[in-house]
């Protein structure tokens, strides 16, 4: 137990939950683009975070009720943009969550972006780790308040909680192949023991897969000193291309299951997408369970490519730039977060929770992997072949089924000549669903302020992500 303040005027005693480090069932909150909200009319920058008060409330309640193991906020935290009072208000807002469970944050453009000539220099006159894009989205903060107020906020990080490893990258600095960050990500992913932690997640602020036409290199939103050099195009498509080129091979090589992104203030769920080919390697299939529909990505052995989720919906006003991209499966303009629940080594589910209208599940998806992650190490081709026939996988079932059908057809054709038999494939019970919270709409006591706030949010305009 730690205590802040003088002995005569000590702080409130707070209790933090320490989650399991390996091979345990866990529930994580995944969110981005939060901001600061109030339940009255006091607000600094209306479109940046008014509904975030409800995100904080819901997450705080979950954490205090021991229904959450950790939370990950990947960029655009407070939108303080140089106003320290807003940082203080935001810190107060997140206290119920951040004091109860581990709360990992990483940098976004509103923490890090600053014109190139404003970056501080070290004693040798060299710049500190510079912002990749320039612009002025941080209000000149250069990441300093975020790092200072939140302790040792790393530029990038990796952590394992239960059976999930989360590698958090910083899309605002150099991530090109061979850079310090690229090497860090590679080493983190390579070190994962899939026997212990079968699920691997990457987070970053600017999206590696996004359905958006936002931004252009010509505009270089947010600053006068932005230089659109190769690899530093700040448009959504420009950043996506760079991430796919530089980080994509790592996601494929180390079989990352999920990639979470923010920056666009929207919820988008995409297919499992192969960066190299530019195609979906797997789309979800609807599964009806107890009257609700789950979008299931069934992985016979290993993730063919990561499923991409954009969830920049924790509070900032919506970014309406979607264009019905072929890889996009769901687009929602609601505020909330993804509750990620690793039940076991074969089942990982995510629920996008609407926090403004009560805790309603707006999208429910699941990754189902029959192999239990065993074959998702960097296996040799021989080992992969062995795993394919090890039993229990969907590929195995299909293979046996096909052999049986062909054998039956051969016998029938030889001995009877004209009669064909048809078989119905029996349903296979792939997994057990463990429902937790949120099945019923949550009563958040929608008072007049809440409704007015919601109206204002829906009617306000968008500035920048
Ligand atoms: Fe952003």
Notable features of this structure?
single chain; alpha/beta; eight-stranded mixed β-sheet; 10 helices; 18 strands; 23% helix; binds fe (ii) ion
Mean pLDDT, all residues: 79
Biggest sheet descriptor: 8 strands, mixed
How many domain regions? Answer: 2
Measured between the Cα atoms of the first and last residue, the distance is: 38 Å
User: What general form does the structure show?
Assistant: globular
* CATH superfamily (homologous) name of the largest domain: Metallo-dependent phosphatases
Percent range of helical residues: 10-25%
Q: Give the cofactors and ligands.
A: fe (ii) ion
CATH class of the largest domain: Alpha Beta
Beta-strand residue percentage: 15-25%
Question: How many individual β-strands?
Answer: 18
Number of helices: 10
- The largest beta-sheet arranges its strands as 5-4-3-16-17-18-13-12
Order of helices and strands: EEEHEHEHHEEHEHHEEEEEEEEEEHHH
| Class based on secondary structure composition and strand pairing | alpha/beta
Low-confidence stretches: 219-226, 383-400, 414-463
CATH topology-level name of the largest domain: Purple Acid Phosphatase, chain A, domain 2
CATH architecture of the largest domain: 4-Layer Sandwich
The radius of gyration computed from the alpha-carbon positions, rounded to a whole number of angstroms, is 24 Å
């Amino acid at each position: 137990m730690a205590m802040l303040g003088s002995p005569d005027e000590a702080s409130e005693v707070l209790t933090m939950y320490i989650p399991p480090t390996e091979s345990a069932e866990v529930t994580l909150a995944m969110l981005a683009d939060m901001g600061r909200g109030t339940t009255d009319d006091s607000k600094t920058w209306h479109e940046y975070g008014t509904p975030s008060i409800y995100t904080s409330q819901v997450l705080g309640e979950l954490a205090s009720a021991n229904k959450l193991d950790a939370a990950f906020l990947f960029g655009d935290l407070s939108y303080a943009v140089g106003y320290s009072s807003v940082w203080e208000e935001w810190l107060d807002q997140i206290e119920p969550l951040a004091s109860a469970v581990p709360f990992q944050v990483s940098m976004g453009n509103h923490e890090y972006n600053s014109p190139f000539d404003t970056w501080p220099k070290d004693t040798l006159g060299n710049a500190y780790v510079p912002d990749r894009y320039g612009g002025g989205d941080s209000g000149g903060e250069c990441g300093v308040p975020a790092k200072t107020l939140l302790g040792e906020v790393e530029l990038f990080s990796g952590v394992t909680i239960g059976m999930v490893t989360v590698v958090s990258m910083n899309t605002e600095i150099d991530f090109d192949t061979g850079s310090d960050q690229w090497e860090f990500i590679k080493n983190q992913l390579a070190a994962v023991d899939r026997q212990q932690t079968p699920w691997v997640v990457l987070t970053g602020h600017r999206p590696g897969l996004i359905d958006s036409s936002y931004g252009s290199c010509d505009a270089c939103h947010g600053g006068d000193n932005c230089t659109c050099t190769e690899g530093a195009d700040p448009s959504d498509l420009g950043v996506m291309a760079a991430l796919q080129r530089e980080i994509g091979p790592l996601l494929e090589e180390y079989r990352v299951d999920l990639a979470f992104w923010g920056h666009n203030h929207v919820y988008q769920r995409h297919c499992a997408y192969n960066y190299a080919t530019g195609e979906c390697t797997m789309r979800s299939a609807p599964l009806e369970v107890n009257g609700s529909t789950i979008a299931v990505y069934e992985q016979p052995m290993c993730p063919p490519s990561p499923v991409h989720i954009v969830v920049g919906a924790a509070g900032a006003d919506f970014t309406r730039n979607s264009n019905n991209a072929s890889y996009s499966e769901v687009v929602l303009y609601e505020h909330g977060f993804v509750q990620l629940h690793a039940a076991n080594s074969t089942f990982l589910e995510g629920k996008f929770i609407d926090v403004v209208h009560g805790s309603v599940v707006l999208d429910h998806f699941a990754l189902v992997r029959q192999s239990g992650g065993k074959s998702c190490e960097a296996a040799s081709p021989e080992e992969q072949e062995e795993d394919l026939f090890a039993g229990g996988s969907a590929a195995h079932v299909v293979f046996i089924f096909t052999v049986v059908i062909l054998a039956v057809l051969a016998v029938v054709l030889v001995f009877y000549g004209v009669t064909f038999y048809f078989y119905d494939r029996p349903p296979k019970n792939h997994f057990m669903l463990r429902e937790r919270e949120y099945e019923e709409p949550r009563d958040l006591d929608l008072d007049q302020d809440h409704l007015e706030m919601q109206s204002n949010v829906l009617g306000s305009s968008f500035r920048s992500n």
